[in-house]
Amino acid sequence: MIGTRGVPARYGGFETAIEEIGARLVAAGHDVRVYCRGAESRLPEHKGMRLVHLPAVRHKTLETLSHTALSVAHLLRSPTDVALVFNAANAPLLPLIRMARIPVATHVDGLEWKRAKWNGTGQRYYLMAERLAVRWSRELIADADAIQDYYQKRYHAPSVMIPYGAPIQEGCDQELLSEAGYKAGGFHLVVARFEPENHVDLIVEGYLRSRATLPLIVVGSAPYAEEYSRRIATLAAGDERVKLVGGVWDQDLLDAMYAGCASYLHGHSVGGTNPSLLRAMGAGAPVVAFDVVFNHEVLGGSGAFFADAGQVADAIEAVEAAPEAARDRGDRGRERARKHYTWDDVAARYERLCLDLKAAR
């Protein structure tokens, strides 16, 4: 598994997927190797997966590709039956894997070229990388039907649709919440990296327009978006109801926050199946999401939606006016996650894909 920060998972959706899928593949009897970067402790193994730690250039446009290049160089000296490459940005390195006669599947992620952090050159690179991933991957992996449709329509390229899984929580650890200063049902929640396409500023602006009495807890930050982060901080500074708490790395506490929030506000707009959204659904959080096809696909009929600050304000006020109705939506979201987004099913589909790739080698 190549192209991410690796495991233990502490950063994003790719890393969580690798941890959940990789551990299950190990349990099924497979040898799994994960390439890692930036780990505080360089563990040789995690949940049965063998970890290879390699450096990377600390720059937003070079970090992923530089680390993947070193990972591929290591891979060529230590062959494997199948390589799973995460992120289409790594596509220029696929020919090297193919030259080694290693079948490769590329998880293309979302529409990365639409992210505001990339300038014209970055956008052109990601569009080129999409084309190269189509050309040089034995299989493409899409994590949503809408991403699958995009590659079919734009490139006439088939793909395998495998979503992420959702951890299911039946209740909330209220004691843990209380220790951290929160009360179950007593706050609205945002969990997101501070990037324009995640619309954290829009959510904060909408909240400020509302007559909400419950505070808005904003979990997240961004390593390369200082100007955008300052905008969010400036908005929040005008109202003591908004609490910017930075990253929450205690996963048990974060689980309790998802399960205990009055509403979870999800502004992501350019990804496919978003892991943070699934985590909120699995916890039974009432979700208010940005109005894009990806979020509609995941939530089905269990979500409320917004497209501007006024609609954010309306949605928050509606949650506070009718908390039982909001909780009912959250319960329906959890049942949808339980039915459609299980890690056991996701891992089984990855196992089937890898066995097919090996058989066709």
UniProtKB/TrEMBL annotation:
Start and end residues of each Glycosyltransferase subfamily 4-like N-terminal domain: 12-165
Superkingdom per UniProt: Bacteria
One Pfam family in the UniProt entry: Glyco_trans_4_4
Regions that span the bilayer: none
SUPFAM superfamilies named among the record's database cross-references: UDP-Glycosyltransferase/glycogen phosphorylase (SSF53756)
Keywords, sorted A to Z: Glycosyltransferase, Transferase
InterPro entries xrefs: Glyco_trans_4-like_N
Residues in coiled coil: none
Name of this protein: DUF1972 domain-containing protein
Biological classification of the source: Bacteria, Bacillati, Actinomycetota, Actinomycetes, Streptosporangiales
